[in-house]
Structure formats: C-alpha cells, structure tokens
Amino acid sequence: MLKHAVALAATVAFASQAFAQVSETQAKLAAQELRLLVTEGTGVINDLQPEINAGTLQKEFAQIDALLGKLQARYSKVAGAPIDTKEAGLVGDIRRAYIQAYKDTLTKKQAAMSKGGQDALVPAHFRALVLKDFNKAMAGRINAYATNRDSELINSDWSVKNVMRHSPLLSEAKALVDTGSQEPTLKRFDKNYMGYWPMKLQAACVACHAQNGLKQQVGQFGGALIADVPMQ
C-alpha cells in the first residue's frame, strides 16, 4: 500500500547513499519510471481541476489517502501492475522518493484544494513543487525538470537555463525545448542519460495562461518533462 511506502520512504536517507555506477539500461529504465510517475501523479490533479476551480470538490476526494489511491489506480492502468515500492535499486528509490514528495505536497496544498477557487491549485505548479522535493530527496542520483521556452513562460524561474543550470545536459535540453521538439528522446550524452518528453497544451492551461497575456492554442507544444540520470 502507498501509505506504508510513505512511512518506509521517510526512513531512507537518499542523500547518504553513495553514487553507484548506473548502466545505460538502468538509466533508461529510471528515466521511464520517473516519467510514468510524474505523468500519472500530475494527472490526478488535472482530473480534479474543474471541481477545484469551481470550489465544488467534495471533502472526501481531497483526502491524502484518496488522492494516493487515484495515483495508484492511474499508474496500474498504464503499467499493468501496481507501484512496487519495495523494489531495490534506483527504480525503487525513485518510487519511494516520488511518493513521499507527492504526499508532502498534497499535505501542504490540501486546504487550498478543499477551499477551491479559480487556479487554487494549478497542475503545473503542483508538479513543480513535487519535483523540487523529489530532486532534493534523490540528491543528484536523478533529476527531473518541467520547463518550457522562455516566450511561453509566465514565471521565468521555470526556464531551461534556470532549472537546469547545474546539469551537464543543459545545452542539449535547451536546444530541444527552444525548437519545440515534439519527438520524445531517450539518449546518452557522455556520462549522463537524458529522457525528454514533450507536453501538449490542454484547454485548462490555455485558459489560465490567457489570463496572464499568453496567446496559445490547445494541442500546441507546452514544454517538456526532462530526466537527467548521471551514469557514474
């Protein structure tokens, strides 16, 4: 159960773990696992966006266990198996760290979610908060970034050059994002492995951004999720 995994994750000191050498295959699996967790985790909040904006989200649907259950259900539907938080190695650590960061962020934002109101909890902002805690927990063994082209950002703090300023993959990632590449990329660059997954703008995103002066269309390039896995 996810609630037991959260308790387990709290006892794991990721920062104290030595960097073990990661093979290219292991790095690819780690990047793909991260993408699945982030996509389905953010999807839980996205599904609830109409009710959150309208202030009509029922209290029981804003409970932490209920939301973790929704993540588990979405993940299982895609992966064909539940989230195995007991797995050893990097993939297991990614699962435990992500779930802990997800739970912590839900706890911080539960009141805002329950109260609701227009943009009371925006999926992209929620994702950024989760990834911030996730990256801190993983202590450089893998880093996750959600970013976009400078001209498409409301908050420049989320630009590629800012969020990836310490990453060896900065130039490669920036080139893909700046051109709005719609091709997913899984590739090794010297000692780091990169996962790049473009995102498309959804109606709620376009409506929210329009309030801040950005003119966009549903289905257009909406940034990318990027994973950076050091291999040694």
Describe this structure in words.
There is one protein chain. Helix content is 52%, strand content 12%. It has helices at residues 2-10, 24-54, 64-79, 89-115, 123-138, 160-163, 170-178, 203-210; strands spanning 143-147, 185-189, 192-200, 221-230. Helix 2 packs across helix 3 (64-79). The longest helix is centred in the first third of the chain and has 31 residues, at 24-54. The radius of gyration is 17 Å and the shape is globular. The two termini are 32 Å apart.
Write the layout of secondary structure elements.
Layout: H1 2-10, H2 24-54, H3 64-79, H4 89-115, H5 123-138, E1 143-147, H6 160-163, H7 170-178, E2 185-189, E3 192-200, H8 203-210, E4 221-230
Antiparallel strand pairs: 1-4, 2-3, 3-4
Low-confidence stretches: 6-18
Largest β-sheet summary:
4 strands, antiparallel
Quickly give the structural class: alpha+beta
Radius of gyration: 17 Å
**First and last CA, distance:** 32 Å
Spatial ordering of strands, largest sheet: 1-4-3-2
Q: Residue share in helices? A: 40-55%
How does the overall form come out from the CA principal axes? globular
Oligomer: single chain
Q: Give the percentage of residues in beta strands.
A: 5-15%
